[in-house]
Amino acid sequence: MYKIFLSLILGTLLSAELINGVSVVVKGEVITLYDIKEEMRKTNASANIATDILIRKKLEVAEINERKISVSNSDVYDEIKKTASLNKMDINEFYEVVRNSSGLNSAEFKEKTKERLLSQKLYAAIAYSSMEPSSDDETKEYYELHKAEFLHPSAFKVVIYTSRNKEALEKKITNPIFYSLDIKKDEQTLPYDKISPELAELLEKTAPNSFTSIFSEGKGFYTTFYLKQTYSNEKTDYNSLKEQITNLLMAQKREQVLSDYFARLRNNADIQIIRDAQ
User: Fold this and answer.
1) How many helices (H) and strands (E) does the chain have?
2) CA-wise closest residue to 267 among 51, 45, 56, 54
3) Does 1-55+138-150+237-278 carry CATH code 3.10.150.10?
4) 192 to each of 153, 202, 209, 257, how far by Cα in Å?
């Protein structure tokens, strides 16, 4: 008898604890206070914005399931292999870089890649029938209004420091006159249009006479760039930018279509706000 009462009491307490941890219910799927606080930590967002992000994610998952959108293991592997190839790495090297930079193991990264591919398929299905190609007039007008945004450096003069010893590179960054036989030095001038967009963006954000962050090159090597000089902005013309502007405008239209779609979906969905995560 006492055991029965004890079980009932414990069950009630556990149910109350679970309910107390629930913040939002989206189509029967729970978002907890812990989920929101984790999203705030990862994105540095406010409680309201973090909640909106998680609600959108729940709606996306529901749409993916309702539309029976799927991604195979082969699709995931091909996507990872393609990304590794673009970065001139084999799969194992790429997994090592991912693990060092994000802390994700191969299984976790595969799951993240699968989620991204599912979202891409969903977005394509939603936006495909609602978007019209940008006209020449639209692209020309955008170019005229945003010319300054398309200016970029012509080249970067850098010193590339590479080592298997990450601690040695960290010492080099804090003390530029530090010398170590473990560090390989290579001075180069890198043309803007010959390097990856990611490296170009990193160097553009780096102040002259300073180091970039240290990143993994794979095979146990680490690298940092010391930016000595950024060469002057290079002017570009409309014809050379037309395709880039067209893609940019289509991306903006696509985002607007998706934003409107999920706003309508949210208004019509069964969403219960249990408590604010403040």
Assistant:
1) 10, 10
2) 56
3) no
4) 7, 12, 18, 33
Fold for the domain defined by 152-234: Chitinase A; domain 3 (3.10.50)
Q: Indicate the DSSP class of residue 182.
A: T
What's the pLDDT score for residue 5?
42
Side-by-side strand order, sheet with 22-26: 29-32, 22-26, 271-273
Tell me: the pLDDT tens digits for 237-267?
888 888 989 999 998 998 999 999 999 999 8
Segment among 7-21, 91-105, 170-184, 219-233 with least mean pLDDT: 7-21
Domain ranges of the chain: 1-55+138-150+237-278, 73-130, 152-234
Determine the 3-state secondary structure of 67 from DSSP.
Answer: coil
pLDDT at residue 100, rounded to an integer: 80
Segment holding 233, helix H or strand E: strand 233-234
**pTM to 2 decimal places:** 0.66
